[in-house]
C-alpha cells in the first residue's frame, strides 16, 4: 500500500463508487479464471496488496484447493520514514518476520500449507530502478500454464506499475496467462473513468462472508492503519480503502 497523503484531493466521487461502467462488467467464475490444475501466482508489490487487490480471490482459490504462489516483492520497510511509533527497528521486527502478513492470510482462512510464499526483499519505492532484475526474479518462479495476477501496469503508483510490467513480461516469456488488478486506480476521480480498460474488466463475485474476511484480514496490518497525531503522519491505508473492500466483488483485467 502507499501513504494516504498521496490521495490528497481524491475525495468522493471516485471511480470505485461512481463509475456507471461498474454495473455492466461481465461476471467471471474462479474456475474460468484459473482452469482446474493450474497454479495461481499473485504478485504483491507491498505488504497488504495481496489482500487489498485480491483477498477475495485468495479465499475462493483456497476453498477449491487450487495451487497458489504468493510473491511478496518488497517488505514495506520504507513505509514510515521518521515515525517514532514505527521505528526502523520495530518495522524490522514486523516486516522481515512478516507477522502482519501471516496474520492476514490466517484471517482470510488460507492455510500455510496451501500456499507457497516467496519474498523478494526488493527495495520499496524504487522498483523501477530494478525492473530487469525483478522481471528475471519473477520469471524464475513461473512455469508454463500458470495464471498470474499482478497490480495493473497503469495503476498510478510507481511500484505497482513496475510490478505489473515485470510480471507481464515474465509471464509472456514463460507462457503463463497474465491478469491485472487495479488497486489505486479505483480512487481516481470519476472524471478519469475512461482511462480504465473496461473492455478487459471482469467481475468476480464475493459473498458476504468472503467480503467480511477480506476486511478483517486488512485490519491485520496495524502498522498501516494507525495515524500519529503528534507527528502528522496519516494512516497508510485510509478509511476509503477499507470502504471499497466492502464491495461484494473484485475486478480483474484479463
From TrEMBL:
Q: Which InterPro entries match?
A: GlcNAc_PI_deacetylase-related, LmbE-like_dom_sf
State the name under which the record lists this protein: Acetylglucosaminylphosphatidylinositol deacetylase
Please report the organism this UniProt entry assigns to the protein: Pseudomonas frederiksbergensis
